[in-house]
Design a protein that fits this description.
alpha/beta; globular; 534 residues; Nitrilase/N-carbamoyl-D-aminoacid amidohydrolase; 6-stranded mixed sheet; 2 domains
Amino acid sequence: MLKKNPLFLSILSAAILSIAWPPLPTGLLLFIGFVPLLIVHHLLRDTKKKNLKFWLYTCLSVLIWNIATTWWVWNASPTGCLMMLFVNTLFMSVPFVLFTHAHKLFPKASYFLFIPLYLGMEYLHFNWNASWPWLTLGKGLAAVPNYIQWYEYSGEMGGSLLILLVNVWIVHLIAKGNVKKIWMPLALVLLFAGLSSLCAFNNFSFRKGITNNIECIVVQPNIDPYEQKFADGSNYLEPEIQLECALDSTLPLITNKTQLLVFPETALVGFNNEATLNYLGLINPLRKLSKDSNLCIISGAESYVIYPNDKNNKPSKTARFDEFSSQWYDSYNTALNIKNDSVSEIYHKSKLVAGVEKMPFEFLEELSINLGGTSGSLGSSDKAINFKLNNGVKIAPLICYESIYGDYTNDFVNDGAQILSVITNDGWWGQTQGHKQHLLYGAIRCIETRREMVRSANTGISAKINKFGNITHQTKYNERKAFKCNITPNSKITFYTKYGNIIGKVSYYLALLIALMVLIGRFIRRKPQKSLES
């Protein structure tokens, strides 16, 4: 049955990939996830229209995998979910299409050529306008952090490389009839388990009496984003009341040793003009908390900037024109650093969610809708901006979706960030695996950079994650709570932080080279046929 049923094999591959995905701690199944699907290619090699058939089986498998692991996007946007599934399925099928054509040119090496083709696709998915790298294979090992301590050298795409190598090696052995040698790729998996233990041991600190810990309070207000948080909700809470909800569980925990307080994404909602932030009544309670103390408060906010009147000249790509005031303005998803009785630093979210906070292409700009209620794409900072605590320690103020980008997190660390913070609102997705996946992806950033992370979620899971990717403190979903923890700054620069995504970049250019060779090969094969016909 397995040898003669490509449909069953394609569905089997999707099933393995799906049950291997976080938050389940079954990530090691990814090492055989693509095996059934690649065997389908081997089975179809002597059939008519084999390339078309393989592409259809691939699309089916990838679509099922996408639905099973990211269906929760439907809760935030049904239309967006359908578009995401459609685009991602087509995009992720491209390496398989190129692989089938490469097989004709290099039949002996084609299975291994599939590796840079797939990795090149993953790298592009981090960097093009419709970026959605949620299913990068290396992220699939996020729920088994003890296995991926070597990510400090390779980044998460090192995980993708290992997963693909083992899958392809197994298929190659099956195709050659060398099933007895399957122990070799499986031994490679075990070898990396040992390597992970060595990396972890190398990062253990044996110092006693560490005194540079920072006392931190992480806040989870638990305000429903659909009903309570924004003005279009039926049970909308005024911004001042929302802040009171957050402070109720926070104030009892603050001591004179508390140096950092973290509120979630858009904790300060409404129309907050950045030119007058220090004069807004909404922010006064937080300013007063920071007055005459060592306390720094990181808080998410909705904010905007108004530009001078000039109707004929658009001041930025994302600026929108208000007909009533005849002014241009930009709206932002913002992080504020409040200390010493004032807003001292501002950062605007830069990795915006395609189709939600921005449209991936400029001609669709006017169709973009922010879940908070504004129209048009949001503005962004043009670089990573760290916040500085009163003791001089730098902290990265990552906002929501940004925490799934390893290279972008590196920008903060290379600029001096010693601690990672994530402010987010995962309540858009409901009580699904979406918020759990997002939490675990943050753990990968901790391993890659060897930085501790504090994570404040409006609704979702707030947590502290150590430099080994282990969650040491966390809240429950749908819980209004604040918790206290100690975080230790770290100035060490890992190999991955220093050199970035080498695997992704090299694979991307190799994939372009293979694609070019495929195109040239097809042109050469067609040319003699035309000559004969003439």
